[in-house]
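Morning F.,

Quick status update on the modeling queue. The single chain you submitted on Monday has been processed. Sequence for confirmation:
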Amino acid sequence: MKKALLTLTFCYACMLMIAASAHARAADIFTNSQYTDSCHLTINSHVTMDAENIQVTNTDGERLLLKADNQLLVNDQLITISPRQQPLVDAYRQQLRTTIPAVVDIALEAVEIGITAVSEGFSTLVGTAPPPALRLALADFRAAIDARLAHQGQVVMLKGDSADLSGAALDQISSDLQAAMASAVASSIGTLIMDLGQTIEAGEGSLDERLQGFTKRFEHLGEALETRIKSRTGALQGRASNLCGQMAELQTAEQNLQAQVPGLKAFSLVHAKTQSTSI
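Structure tokens below.
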């Protein structure tokens, strides 16, 4: 009986560690850090676009509207563009059309992988669907992301520094998600006890062999879950690596236009990341 309790304690600890690993990988995906740490560029302003127009809103609330015919308006005031400047405007518009949807699509796909990882992690370990509290926490996180990022048809939205999906509000929601997952794992202890009991009663071999088989099964479940998540994130990481080059091209197009139209410097989209010191 003592060995059974030790095995149960070990497996429960495994569940917590595997769940924490799933959440940590999901959090990395949510923040997009594992894909953007190698890129020194980030996008800070709010951008919305549809089939005709692109609007950039800076941190002061000023608006730059770029129309399909390359007309530029700042706070609804038309900016005169010379024939020499038109190619620069067109290059900037085309680069926005390429880069911003790519940023949004990668971030949204990363979030989806992360949410799936958390949900699958629980279901794989416990054998049941996530409880309501965990599903609610996942839904809250998805709603927070949807308020910052969107791509439906030709309508694209990137709000604030959503390329990194950071900020106090999302940090709190992520913390709530972690707490909900820990609580869900803790509440599954009854299922774990029943599973252990069935293994002891119906398994083959000695008691030690059956207990070892039970613990190894949890280890294998964790490894299989990690492999599945990595397979999904591998292709995404390659796309995200290419994205840094696209952002650099957008920055070049932006700087070329601003050199000819200095009034547009207030709407700089692409910025160098602030380097933080790791402890």
